[in-house]
Design brief:
Layout: E1 23-29, H1 35-45, E2 53-59, E3 64-70, H2 73-76, H3 79-84, E4 89-95, E5 110-113, E6 119-128, H4 131-135, H5 147-155, H6 163-170, E7 176-183, E8 188-192, E9 201-205, E10 208-212, H7 215-220, E11 224-228, E12 233-238, E13 241-246, E14 254-255, H8 256-262, E15 268-269, E16 272-273, H9 274-288, E17 295-298, H10 304-314, E18 322-324, H11 337-342, E19 348-350, H12 352-355, E20 359-364, H13 371-382, E21 387-392, H14 414-417, H15 420-427, E22 431-434, H16 437-444, E23 451-452, H17 454-457, H18 500-505, E24 507-508
Parallel strand pairs: 14-23, 17-20, 20-21, 21-22
Antiparallel strand pairs: 1-4, 1-10, 2-3, 2-4, 3-24, 5-6, 6-7, 7-8, 8-12, 9-10, 9-11, 12-13, 15-16, 18-19
The structure holds iron/sulfur cluster (SF4).
Iron/sulfur cluster (SF4) binds next to helix 8 and helix 17.
Length: 519
């Protein structure tokens, strides 16, 4: 059975990225295990959630060390680096920037020493909506512009309290979406916002515990799934075992888009497997938008399960009509104008012999700007397809997300200004059908009231600030003091252009980016 790889099909055109997830987080407490390597493989399994930066914090009980850099997990870490990260608890992060730009300082985990002498490292999936309000209460000098650094500073701001007690003070003041993993020298913590917008799960190892954004990451490190971290719950794990506290009344509003597109197909959310959900969405799509055709093809990979469902329900044969060049992933190579014009052709190649002379149904997961679908339709027609019918396994995306997914701006969303027939004409399809919101919700087997659907229906479950000071660059220039003497890596610094000094900066200590640690 074909299986998606979790890559974002909207990201097929490198010049026009589609929706980006807010990050993947992972944490492990396991004395006697190689926790840095477990975290590396956990992050590897979560790479689809963020490809801009990666980092791991580790503690052996005497101190916390962070290693992070811009790049993919496999670009940032190598064997010697992982071997240098020794300890029995660790957290990790694969980042896409939702608040703060793509700079070294904004890579995670963040790290900060408290006045009490404890060091806190923190990794975040989600996006806060009261960031500017929180920023006014913190004087942070580390140069980072992320809401995550703010929360770390807030947690470190209670010298007379334990980190656990500080978390019980700070977490109720945060508004927005957050799935946190954080740690001090001895304890691993996990916390999820009261709405549980972004996923976070707890797993068990033979000799320890794991928390991760998705169950697939637990599978890959050999952990069994225990349960989800509950909305409004703080978990602490140390020598005394696992403790759970409530910091907010739970009001679940899990992200509907995780089922459509963001999560891996082999992940389970709310007891419902994502792959099975996507196949069911495809079946519903076939019932809601039938068409006479010869072949159903997916836009690989994330359209694959829904295309299988569409084919099963409609009785139209399923096949591959587009081959993905799996090794043209995210790259730091800047394309020249000539290469940029190739756009989607860098990543997808039509199978001419298969599509020629046929009426084709193309199943994709979403339409953001419409550029990807327009390019695919043109390629298929040039390859001899007689008709191209587009079927989309989510309703039209009309509203921006403030809870950790970076869509195009509202003005760029093709569904914002056009009705379905207008979009069909804009992308050049013979027909176009979106699954209904009711059909999508029903396929998830979750009650509508327990889901965030705001990007589809504009009904935001978490109130937004009236000053509208939200968005990924909210902290740049707000409540920040930039220390000109504080030398930092250049924006865009990558592992490939590291000189010896820049390489040393990849290690971070609680003193900030210019207090360097060597393994
Ligand atoms: S607005 Fe859309 S993408 Fe954002 S959390 Fe809600 S359902 Fe998910």
């Amino acid at each position: 059975m074909p299986r998606g790889d979790g890559r974002l099909s909207q990201d097929l055109d490198p010049g026009r990225p589609g929706p980006q997830d807010a990050c993947g987080v992972f944490g492990v407490w396991a004395p006697g295990e190689e926790v840095a390597k477990l975290t590396y493989f956990g992050l590897y399994a979560l790479q689809h959630r963020g490809q801009e930066a990666a980092g791991i914090a580790v503690s052996d009980g005497s101190g916390v060390v962070v290693y992070k850099d811009l790049g993919l997990v496999a670009q940032v870490f190598d064997e010697p680096t992982l071997a240098s990260l020794r300890g029995y608890l660790a957290i990790g992060h694969a980042r896409y920037s939702t608040t703060g730009g793509s700079t070294w300082e904004n890579a995670q985990p963040t790290i900060q020493a408290s006045d009490s002498g404890t060091t806190i490292a923190l990794a975040h999936n989600g996006n806060l909506v009261n960031t500017s309000e929180l920023a006014a209460t913190v004087d942070s000098k580390d140069g980072s512009t992320s809401d995550t650094a703010l929360v770390t500073a807030l947690l470190a701001g209670y010298p007379d309290l334990s980190v656990e007690e500080a978390a019980m003070r700070v977490l109720p003041t945060l508004r927005g979406a957050f799935s946190f993993v954080f740690m001090d020298e001895n304890t691993l913590y996990a916390a999820r916002d009261a709405n549980g917008v972004r996923p976070l799960v707890l797993g068990r190892l033979e000799r320890g515990w794991v928390v991760a954004s998705e169950t697939a990451a637990l599978d890959i490190v050999g952990a069994s799934v225990v349960r989800e971290v509950e909305p409004g719950e703080l978990i602490a794990i140390d020598d005394d075992g696992l403790r759970s506290q409530r910091f907010a009344v739970p009001d679940p509003k899990g992200c509907l888009f995780e089922y459509v597109y963001l999560a891996r197909p082999d992940t389970t959310i709310g007891g419902r497997n994502v792959y099975a959900t996507r196949v069911e969405i495809g079946r519903r799509l076939a019932r809601e938008h039938p068409v006479e055709a010869d072949l159903v093809i997916p836009v690989p990979e994330s359209g694959t399960p829904a295309a299988i469902g569409y084919a099963e329900e409609s009785g139209i044969p399923y096949g591959s009509g587009l081959v993905k060049n799996a090794y043209v992933g995210r790259t730091f190579i800047q394309p020249s104008q000539t290469i940029r014009q190739l756009g989607i052709r860098l990543k997808l190649n039509p199978l001419r012999q298969i599509v020629r002379g046929k009426r084709i149904v193309v199943v994709d997961d979403s339409i953001v700007r419409g550029n990807t679908q327009r390019a695919i339709i043109r390629m298929l027609r040039e390859s001899g397809a007689l008709e191209v019918h587009i079927r989309i396994s989510s309703p039209p995306v009309k509203w921006p997300c403030f809870y950790g997914i970076d869509f195009a701006t509202r003005a760029e969303l093709v569904a914002n200004g056009l009705d379905t027939d207008g979009i069909r004409r804009s992308i050049g399809a013979d027909s176009l059908g979106y699954v209904s919101l009711a059909g999508l919700i029903s396929a998830t087997e979750q009650p509508k009231t327990r889901l965030c659907r705001a990007c589809f229906d504009g009904d935001y479950p978490i109130g937004l600030p009236s000053d509208n000071l939200i968005g990924k660059h909210v902290l740049e220039g707000v409540g920040r003091r930039v220390d000109a003497d504080n030398e930092r890596p250049e924006p865009g610094h990558t592992p490939g252009d590291s000189d010896s000094t820049a390489g040393a900066r990849q290690y971070a200590s609680p003193g900030g980016a210019d207090a360097l640690l060597r393994p």
